[in-house]
Design a protein that fits this description.
By secondary structure, this protein is an alpha/beta fold. Helices cover 45% and strands 16% of the residues. It is built from 10 helices and 8 strands. An 8-stranded parallel β-sheet has the order 3-2-1-8-7-6-5-4. It is globular and about 45 Å long.
Length: 219
C-alpha cells in the first residue's frame, strides 16, 4: 500500500471505518464484519487495548481488496509499532510527529486538522489526505469554505458523521467520510455485531448510489 493507492481507493469507496473500544478481540471482529459488508478501509484506534494484535489479526484475515490501518497514531514509536503489526496506513487526530514519520517511511497517513493553517501544514508534512476533525464543529458548510482556497487538498470528514450527514459532506467536497460510533456502536467493546452488518450495508449502499443522475436512475 502506497499513498497514491490509498488515496485513489478511499476516493472511490467514499468510506473509512473507525473502530474504537475496550477490547482488541472485539474490535478485530467488528472490523472484519465491516469488511465483509463492503468496507475496504478500516482503522483500529490505538487507544483500544490490544489494538496492535487486533491489527495483525485483521490483516491476516481481511478479504481481498480490504486494508487495515491504525488510528490515534501520535508518536514515532506508534508508527513503528503499527508497521510491525502489519498496519497499512496511519490516522492521526492532530499534527503530531507521527505525520512526518509516516511520510518519511512512505506509509499513507490521514492527518488530523481543523483549521486552514493546519490543513495546509498537514499536506506540507506529507499527509496523503487531511482528516477534517471534528467535522461536526463546522459541518459541511465549513468544509466547503475550506475547499475554496484549497481545492486540491483531499479532505475526509470525521467526527459526528452519520448516515443522515454523509451525503452533505460528499456534496461539500469530502472525498470520504470516517465512521465510528454511527457504524460500530459498542461492537468494539464486545457489543452485538448484527446491527453493525445492517448499518454497514446502509453506508455502502449510500456511497454506491451517491452522485447518480436522473438519467442513470430507473424511470
Amino acid at each position: 500500500m502506497n499513498p497514491e493507492l490509498l488515496l485513489n481507493g478511499v476516493r472511490d469507496s467514499r468510506l473509512v471505518a473507525i473502530v474504537r473500544g475496550s477490547d482488541g478481540r472485539a474490535a478485530a471482529k467488528a472490523a472484519l464484519v465491516a469488511m465483509e459488508e463492503g468496507f475496504r478501509y478500516v482503522e483500529i484506534a490505538l487507544t483500544t487495548p490490544g489494538a496492535l494484535q487486533a491489527i495483525s489479526e485483521v490483516r491476516a484475515a481481511a478479504p481481498a481488496g480490504c486494508f487495515v490501518g491504525a488510528g490515534t497514531v501520535l508518536t514515532v514509536r506508534d508508527v513503528d509499532n503499527v508497521v510491525e503489526a502489519g498496519g497499512q496506513f496511519t490516522v492521526t487526530p492532530a499534527l503530531a510527529e507521527s505525520v512526518d514519520e509516516s511520510a518519511r517511511q512512505g506509509i499513507p497517513v490521514l492527518a488530523g486538522a481543523m483549521t486552514p493553517s493546519e490543513a495546509y501544514e498537514a499536506m506540507n508534512r506529507g499527509a496523503t489526505a487531511v482528516k477534517l476533525f471534528p467535522a461536526s464543529i463546522g459541518g459541511p458548510q465549513y468544509l466547503k469554505a475550506l475547499r475554496d482556497p484549497f481545492p486540491d487538498i483531499p479532505f475526509i470528514a470525521v467526527g459526528g458523521v452519520g448516515l443522515e450527514q454523509a451525503a452533505a459532506y460528499w456534496d461539500a467536497g469530502a472525498i470520504a467520510v470516517g465512521l465510528g460510533g454511527p457504524l460500530f456502536g459498542d461492537a468494539g467493546s464486545g457489543g452485538d455485531l448484527a446491527p453493525v452488518r445492517s448499518r454497514a450495508r446502509s453506508f455502502v449502499d449510500l456511497a454506491a448510489g451517491f452522485g447518480r443522475t436522473a438519467v442513470e436512475s430507473p424511470r
